[in-house]
Design a protein that fits this description.
Elements: E1 12-19, E2 22-30, H1 35-45, E3 56-59, E4 80-85
Parallel strand pairs: 1-4
Antiparallel strand pairs: 1-2, 3-4
Length: 91
């Protein structure tokens, strides 16, 4: 018998989401999610769909641009993610 409790992707991380300076509260994600998937989920859940998700960048609370090909767990203890349109996008 295998235990379902042993699954690594069952662990959730809670992160405060800020999009273009507006707080959207805390959302919960599996720690194994890649940041590209997380970005797409957040934009859809918050109805920020006027721009392609590819036009958005994600930064940590220190302003460091995050590599969207990496996983959330690769960045350690992140408490906030800041979403903004890339420079020159959206007027």
């Amino acid at each position: 018998m295998t235990k379902k409790d042993d699954k690594k992707d069952d662990k959730k991380i809670e992160i405060e989401i800020i999009i273009s300076g507006t707080g959207y509260g805390v959302m919960s994600f599996p720690d194994g999610i890649n940041l590209k998937g997380l970005r797409d989920q957040v934009l859809e859940k918050t109805n920020n769909i006027g721009q392609s998700s590819e036009n958005w960048e994600v930064r940590d609370s220190d302003g460091n641009l995050l590599d969207l090909s990496k996983h959330l767990q690769d960045y350690g203890d992140i408490k906030q993610l800041w979403f903004s349109l890339k420079a020159g996008i959206g007027g």
